[in-house]
């Protein structure tokens, strides 16, 4: 009965409930008193008290329940113990309010395109709301670190007092594997370098105060991705897919990975959804229809939107100026803005002041 009541309590900001999220660790009942232990990883200080209140409320009215005790353990922002390579860094990325992964099951679906455009769109949304510029990108895609190209930044970052200084463009702070790993290093060497580098990203990059850090993950769902997801304290993940069935299936697998480590899905976004005839408004769905939406439904998360195929997106990326910056008003840019807005709403980024 208690478990059923708990499964009606959504995780703050999400439609998914706390039971299926896997944060309910223990339920103890003796006579009329109930004790529930929750364990979560979150850097948002409002989540724990809110959960406590919501759970208390959900249980208080149950028949036979006289006393409710809710214990919330918030895991600090460091790698979990079972990760042997984590050498007890203390609270890295402390001033990063939320980190959101952009992930996909396979490469070439537009993960980096989303990362760069969402980051630039988010920067503008936050600025408009009177928040100081505070968006970052952490490019962890070792196999194809394309963020430097897309964001128009590519230099070796400086090191000041032992801290790596991110580069900046369009108001967004950028750190990429591409800055650190030489292009001609064979991919086979990159694996081991990755974990080291990611840990450096997490603990030695001088991000300063950030409202949002977007993390461009390598495609796939293997061990590399999993340990990465455990190293960086993620508040949520956006899954990018194209409409085709093949992409949709791997997107699902990608999403399962986040489940394993209790990182909530922010939602599913579909890329290359259709060609738009801007004169008639007619959409041609070249790769089929509804794949992203079905994936979102299957994963019990939100469908964030459909970005059309548009050559201006690729041109923007190739020239180092994301399309949301160069052409903010065209339809494809508008979709990026809408998706960024949804993320902002979900995490209350523009309302209220954070300590
Ligand atoms: N909606 C789109 N319309 C046109 N070209 C796109 C679109 N999305 C991505 N691209 C292009 O497709 C290629 C792959 O995108 P990219 O973001 O690098 O994928 P991933 O990071 O998933 O490997 C890039 O050249 C990019 O500019
Ligand atoms: Mg990429």
Secondary-structure blueprint of this entry?
Elements: H1 2-6, H2 18-21, E1 24-30, E2 33-41, H3 47-60, E3 67-75, E4 96-103, H4 111-128, E5 135-139, H5 147-151, E6 159-160, E7 163-164, E8 167-169, E9 172-176, H6 177-180, H7 187-204, E10 210-216, H8 223-231, E11 236-241, H9 245-260, E12 265-277, E13 282-284, H10 291-298, E14 303-309, H11 311-318, H12 323-326, H13 331-346
Parallel strand pairs: 2-3, 4-10, 4-11, 5-9, 5-10, 11-12, 12-14
Antiparallel strand pairs: 1-2, 6-7, 8-9, 12-13
Helix pairs in contact: 4-13, 7-8, 9-10
The structure holds adenosine-5'-diphosphate and magnesium ion (MG).
Magnesium ion (MG) binds at residues 111-112, 141, 144, 146.
- The end-to-end span amounts to 38 Å
- Ligands and ions found: adenosine-5'-diphosphate, magnesium ion
Number of domains: 2
Secondary-structure class: alpha/beta
**Order of helices and strands, N to C?**
HHEEHEEHEHEEEEHHEHEHEEHEHHH
Mean pLDDT: 85
| CATH class value of the largest domain | Alpha Beta
The backbone outline, from C-alpha atoms, is: globular
CATH topology name of the largest domain, in short, is Rossmann fold
Name the helicity range.
Answer: 25-40%
The appropriate CATH architecture of the largest domain is: 3-Layer(aba) Sandwich
Query: In DSSP terms, counting alpha (H) and pi (I) runs of 4 or more, how many helices?
Result: 13
Q: Please state roughly what percent of the residues sit in beta strands, choosing from under 5%, 5-15%, 15-25%, 25-35%, 35-45% or over 45%.
A: 15-25%
Number of strands: 14
Low confidence ranges: 78-92
CATH 4th-level superfamily of the largest domain: P-loop containing nucleotide triphosphate hydrolases
In this structure, how is the largest beta sheet organized? Answer: 9 strands, mixed
Quaternary class: single chain
Please state the CA-atom Rg, rounded to the nearest Å. Answer: 21 Å
């Amino acid at each position: 009965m208690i478990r059923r009541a708990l499964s009606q309590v959504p995780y703050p900001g999400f439609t998914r409930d706390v039971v299926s999220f896997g944060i309910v660790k223990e339920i103890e009942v003796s006579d009329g008193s109930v004790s529930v232990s929750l364990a979560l990883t979150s850097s948002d200080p409002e989540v724990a008290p809110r959960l406590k209140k919501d759970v208390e409320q959900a249980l208080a009215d149950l028949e036979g329940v006289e006393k409710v005790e809710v214990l919330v353990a918030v895991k600090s922002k460091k790698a979990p113990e079972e990760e042997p390579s984590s050498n007890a860094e203390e609270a890295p990325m402390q001033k990063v309010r939320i980190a959101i992964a952009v992930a996909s099951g396979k490469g070439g679906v537009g993960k980096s395109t989303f990362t760069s455009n969402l980051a630039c769109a988010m920067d503008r949304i936050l600025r408009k709301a009177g928040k100081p510029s505070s968006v970052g990108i952490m490019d962890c895609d070792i196999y194809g670190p394309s963020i430097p190209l897309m964001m128009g930044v590519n230099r070796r970052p400086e090191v000041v007092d032992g801290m790596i200084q991110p580069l900046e463009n369009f108001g967004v702070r950028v750190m990429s594997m591409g800055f650190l790993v030489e292009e001609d290093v064979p991919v086979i060497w990159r694996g081991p370098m990755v974990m080291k580098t990611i840990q450096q990203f997490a603990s030695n990059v001088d991000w300063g105060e950030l409202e949002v850090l977007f993390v461009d993950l390598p495609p796939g769902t293997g061990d590399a991705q999993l340990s990465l997801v455990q190293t960086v304290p993620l508040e949520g993940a956006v899954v990018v897919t194209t409409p085709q069935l093949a992409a949709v299936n791997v997107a699902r697998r990608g999403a399962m990975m986040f489940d394993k480590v209790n990182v909530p899905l922010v939602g599913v976004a579909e890329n290359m959804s259709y060609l738009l005839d801007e004169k008639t408004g007619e959409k041609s769905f070249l790769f089929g229809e509804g794949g992203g939406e079905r994936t979102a439904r299957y994963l019990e998360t939100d469908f964030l939107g459909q970005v059309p195929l548009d050559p201006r997106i690729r041109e923007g990326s190739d020239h180092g100026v994301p399309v949301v910056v160069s052409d903010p008003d065209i339809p494809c840019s508008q979709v990026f803005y809408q998706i960024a807005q949804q993320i902002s709403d979900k995490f209350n980024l523009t309302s209220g002041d954070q300590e």
